Amino acid sequence: AVFAVIVVAAGSGSRLGRGIPKAAVEVAGKTLLQWALEGVIAAGIASRVVVTVPAGDTVLRQVCERFGALAVEGGATRSESVTAALSVLNEAPLQTGFSESPATSVLVHDAARCFAPVSSFKNVAEALVAGEKAVIPVVPVVDTIKSVDVKQVVTGTPARSELRAVQTPQGFDLATLLDAYSDLSSLSPEEAETVTDDAMLIETLGMRVLTVAGHADAFKVTTPLDLVLAQALYEH
Ligand code: CTP
Ligand code: MG
């Protein structure tokens, strides 16, 4: 398999509330995008890397250049950003030491999960090499999860043993992911907003999605509390 990696970093980081794009926020003197790209390179599987960046950004584009990654302007939603990256995948420069062959598989990774360990990349990539078409890293859920209706009244309690929290990188056979994304343009903006991961679209096609072991370190930097955790772990 020839792997390309998409890092989505075009979000605004509204819940973090720093007033700058989340991927440009620094921990221990490095932007979250730099942490994320170091993780991608350390995994040693990416022949090409594409990064979605916010409109008007210059900081993140400079980071991309240093890692030999192609920067592309993202869209209004995460799924639109992935679409933009998919359309330029094989235009990205080759990483040193990789073959020129076009990508056959793609890993889609959140810049916000910038501390995802090599094991997450490896577990996903190995399952793809073994023939899986869609693979996602997961961890057990610690909270009891309930569903509620529009009036905030509980409608059910799914068995926690059957639930998993989903992380990235998520890995796909490229043709399969392109197929899953092909009719995304038919969604309304409200529907597009509900596409919070890529595997959802594969599930919609009725296709099998395999879970493999993720890692606690692949938590998503979303709220100010997450940034405190990141600083506690990485600033000395
Ligand atoms: N993302 C993207 N394009 C968008 C929205 C999100 O590339 N239009 C990326 C983010 O940069 C992030 C990942 O998707 O790396 C996961 O999204 P999330 O954690 O929601 O980040 P933000 O959208 O930036 O944060 P918020 O929802 O709090 O504004
Ligand atoms: Mg978001």
UniProtKB/TrEMBL annotation:
A matching Pfam family: IspD
Catalytic reaction equation(s): 2-C-methyl-D-erythritol 4-phosphate + CTP + H(+) = 4-CDP-2-C-methyl-D-erythritol + diphosphate
Question: Which keywords has UniProt assigned to this entry?
Answer: Isoprene biosynthesis, Nucleotidyltransferase, Transferase
Q: What metabolic or biological pathway is this protein involved in?
A: Isoprenoid biosynthesis; isopentenyl diphosphate biosynthesis via DXP pathway; isopentenyl diphosphate from 1-deoxy-D-xylulose 5-phosphate: step 2/6
Per the UniProt entry, what are the Gene Ontology biological process annotations, in alphabetical order?
Answer: isopentenyl diphosphate biosynthetic process, methylerythritol 4-phosphate pathway
Which molecular function term from Gene Ontology is one that the record holds?
Answer: 2-C-methyl-D-erythritol 4-phosphate cytidylyltransferase activity
The site feature described as Positions MEP for the nucleophilic attack is recorded at 160, 220
Sites marked Transition state stabilizer: 15, 22
Please give the SUPFAM superfamilies that the UniProt record associates with this protein.
Answer: Nucleotide-diphospho-sugar transferases
Gene3D superfamilies in the record, alphabetically? Spore Coat Polysaccharide Biosynthesis Protein SpsA, Chain A
Q: What class of enzyme is it?
A: transferase
**EC numbers on record:** 2.7.7.60
- Similarity comment text for this entry: Belongs to the IspD/TarI cytidylyltransferase family. IspD subfamily.
What function does the entry list? Catalyzes the formation of 4-diphosphocytidyl-2-C-methyl-D-erythritol from CTP and 2-C-methyl-D-erythritol 4-phosphate (MEP).
Against HAMAP family, the record matches this protein to:
IspD
Report what the protein is called. Answer: 2-C-methyl-D-erythritol 4-phosphate cytidylyltransferase
Q: Which classification does the entry list for the species?
A: Bacteria, Bacillati, Actinomycetota, Actinomycetes, Micrococcales
